[in-house]
Amino acid sequence: MLKVGIALGMAILFGAIADILMSKGMRSHDEISIRHLSDIPRVAGCVFTRPMVIMGVISMAIYFGSYVATLGWIDVSVANPLTALSYLIASAYAAFVMKEKIGITRAVGIMMIITGAILVGLSS
After folding, report:
1. DSSP state of 37
2. Burial code of 31-66, b = ≥16 C-beta within 10 A, e = fewer?
3. What is 62-109 written as a DSSP string?
4. Tally of domains within the chain
5. How far apart are CA 4 and CA 72, in angstroms?
6. By residue range, what is the domain housing residue 65?
7. 3-state class of 33 per DSSP?
8. For residues 37 and 92, what is the distance between their CA atoms, to the nearest angstrom?
9. Backbone phi, psi, residue 48, to 5°
10. What would the pLDDT profile of 79-115 be if each residue is shown by its tens digit?
11. pLDDT at 54 over 90
């Protein structure tokens, strides 16, 4: 059971880290717009040379590896909802460090997701 906890914990943590890094990376420069299909290579080159985005992609790869390992040991109906606990980490970081406004409706929604994830975890 320790290996499940470690893999799931890594999936939760690195899922949140990936979201945060990619958000910061995408906001670090001018707005990106694609008006024509021919714009895609230029935009992709711009996006995937941003250090925060690259670190976010690496974090997402770690998340994916941890999540896949978790699926080898527990049911997807348990693992998937539990990874939603990453919302708490990402939302707390967004509110306290990035100074994003989290209104009451959003806060209640986040708490409902977390409560549901905990209930699913306790049911297994």
Report:
1. G
2. eeeeeeeeeeeeeeeebeebebbebbeebbebbeeb
3. HHHHHHHHHHTTS-HHHHHHHHTTHHHHHHHHHHHTS-----HHHHHH
4. 1
5. 9
6. 2-123
7. coil
8. 37
9. -85, 15
10. 999 999 999 999 999 999 999 999 999 999 999 999 9
11. yes
Asked whether the predicted pLDDT for residue 31 surpasses 80, the reply is no
How far is Cα of residue 23 from the mean position of the Cα atoms in its chain?
Answer: 10
pLDDT tens-digit map of 21-30: 999 998 887 7
Torsion-angle region of 101 (φ positive above 0: left; ψ -120 to 50: alpha; else: beta): beta
Measured distance CA(41)–CA(33) in Å, rounded: 12
Token pair for 20: 């945060």
Give the chain's mean pLDDT: 92
